[in-house]
Amino acid sequence: MPELPEVETIRRGLDKFILNQTIQEVHVLCEKSFRGNKKWLLGQKIIKIDRRGKALLIQLENNMWMMVHLRMTGQMIFVGDEKFAAGHPDGGFTEKMPGRHTRVYFDFTNGTHLYFNDQRKFGFIAVLDELGLHEDKFLNKLAPEPWDMKPDDFWTMLQRHKAAPIKAVILDQGNIAGVGNIYADEGCFYAKILPWRRCDSLDRDEADLLLRGLCEVMQASIDSGGSTMKDYVRADGTKGSYLEKFAQVFRREGLECRRCGGMIEKTRVAGRGTHYCKGCQK
Ligand SMILES: [Zn+2]
Predict the structure, then answer these.
(1) How is the beta sheet containing 34-35 ordered, strand by strand?
(2) Other CB atoms closer than 10 Å to residue 121's CB: what's the count?
(3) Of the residues 140, 164, 183, the one at which a domain ends
(4) Domain for residue 155, yes or no?
(5) Same domain, 105 and 158
(6) Is-catalytic flag, 162?
(7) pLDDT digits (tens, 9 = 90+) for 125-181
(8) Which of 23, 126, 251, 282 is deepest in the core (most CB within 10 A)?
(9) Least confident of 127-141, 197-211, 219-233, 238-252
(10) Is the separation of the CB atoms in 190 and 212 below 8 Å?
(11) Domain range for residue 180?
């Protein structure tokens, strides 16, 4: 599953390659992977590449939108003079396009192409008008992303969840959007709090520090090209280096804490593998 920084990396790649391109034809090779009427897209210029949480939102001149969910195995592959691929690397990147796992693809009027590959078919592209976008269930339940959330609102949200473990609460996209497993662990390390503590055990300074930590670790990942998981690659097909460069606790169990010299340990919180330092997280 890509995390938000990976999807933001893909958004930036698409912005570079398909912005202002006009769609000539849409080929739907798998009905399940495409929702809506492709006629709404034909002859339309792409005027904006946006993102909400892990969904890509592509706006067309006629105010229709394509919402792209990559889910587990989605890939976006652009083929023109330059080629770029982003998403899950199941080998589809290097195949001749359309490939085995191509579900939908677009021809642009300048002779370039964009392919949506999805091995397991959990992802999809939906065509929506403004109202459909406004009423979309997925988008509607998304809370603000960390950098769009005020410390007061974050604090109020935590108070609502009282006894729930902090990590479970910040992983819920309805509470704060885009925080995946890695960033939850790194954010708690940043704020020096143990991920399983009850929400109502945090004081205001700890809560403020946690929000700042989430912003910092996710921004650092975006700046380094996303790619937090070893099986995700950047828009140009190379692997990101977030984990080696920035991870303080994630997948560092058994190693020395860079802050206090203690040992990083691993446990389970909210059903997820959770990394922490017993020495400096309270
Ligand atoms: Zn430590």
Answers:
(1) 34-35, 124-128, 65-69, 55-60, 46-52
(2) 15
(3) 140
(4) yes
(5) no
(6) no
(7) 999 999 999 999 989 999 999 999 999 999 999 999 999 999 999 999 999 998 989
(8) 23
(9) 219-233
(10) yes
(11) 146-277
State the amino acid at position 102 in one-letter form: T
Integer angstrom CA distances of residue 247 from 65, 161, 214, 217: 36, 28, 13, 9
As a whole number of angstroms, the distance between CA 173 and CA 180 comes to: 9
User: How close is the Cα of 140 to the center of ligand 1, in Å?
Assistant: 38
Angle ∠(73,10,221) on CA atoms, nearest 5: 100
Separation in Å, CA 189 to CA 125, 168, 279 = 36, 15, 11
The verdict on 80 and 178 lying in the same domain is: no
- Cβ neighbour number for residue 273 with a 10 Å cutoff: 13
Same domain, 135 and 168: no
CA–centroid distance, residue 250 to ligand 1 (Å): 13
Catalytic residue among 11, 51, 54, 103: 54
Q: 106 and 166: one domain?
A: no
**pTM score:** 0.82
